[in-house]
């Protein structure tokens, strides 16, 4: 009777590596996270530190060359009235756009999360996402045509005999101008349109996570629908509002294309950085001024965290 012999176990390099990764899960996790962490550290943080380093240099007014000597002249120049006015104007615009996106986006997100079902919900998804499927510049120049003095909005207002209302709005100081396409009001409208999807989607995801039992418990305890909304739904939707506001606030604060195409000669932070870097060639001051929105957003995130906006994230 012949004995049954088993084949010798395979001990190739691939088998040993597979066994090592299977038995040491921490090593596998480290290998998976290493590429994105290296990318984040080298590309993102590296560029930020390079930006910070350039902000301490200065531009020689005579030769136009960057003088690599440590100094604080760029930061002192930021605190001149003209630059402070630009920073304040950009911050106020970012706050107004964020508030408008919350006011417009919350009802849409609430309906999509609590009431829309099936094809209707899919249609609403497409309606919200549809603007993002086209080019940023295409949408921007389309709005330029809509807001122009001879554009569709002006034509509709004339047809409805409401041209006087549009003229009254455009005659208002600070927000008005020769037409909607050359006024801060037009800039505000386009900002809200561009960033509204970034507010709707996080709020909708936040509302969808609210258990239905919470609303039933609120009703069983005698709360009115308004009280349930104010004391249950809105606080639990706050993480979504906070997440969306980060998008709308930061995107508005740093954008320079919209104010350059829509609006008058009023400058915003992004335009100042672009002109200093691209036109004047003053890279050190552009680097220093680009730190302004980073500081403002940092303060904004700190305030939001202190108010508990990120507790449920």
How would you concisely characterize the structure shown here?
Helices cover 72% and strands 1% of the residues. It has helices spanning 13-23, 25-55, 73-78, 81-114, 118-129, 136-147, 152-159, 163-170, 184-208, 212-220, 225-254, 257-261, 269-279, 283-306, and strands spanning 58-59, 66-67.
Structural class: mainly alpha
Strand content: under 5%
Largest sheet descriptor: 2 strands, antiparallel
- Low-pLDDT residue intervals, each spanning 5 or more residues: none
Distance between the termini: 70 Å
- Reading the helices and strands in chain order gives HHEEHHHHHHHHHHHH
Tell me roughly what share of residues is in helical segments.
Answer: over 70%
The chain-level mean pLDDT equals 86
Order of the strands making up the biggest sheet:
1-2
Q: How many runs of DSSP E, i.e. beta strands?
A: 2
Question: Radius of gyration from the CA trace?
Answer: 27 Å
Q: How large is the count of helical segments?
A: 14
What is the 3D form? Answer: globular
Could you name the key traits of this structure?
313 residues, mainly alpha, two-stranded antiparallel ribbon, 14 helices, 2 strands, globular
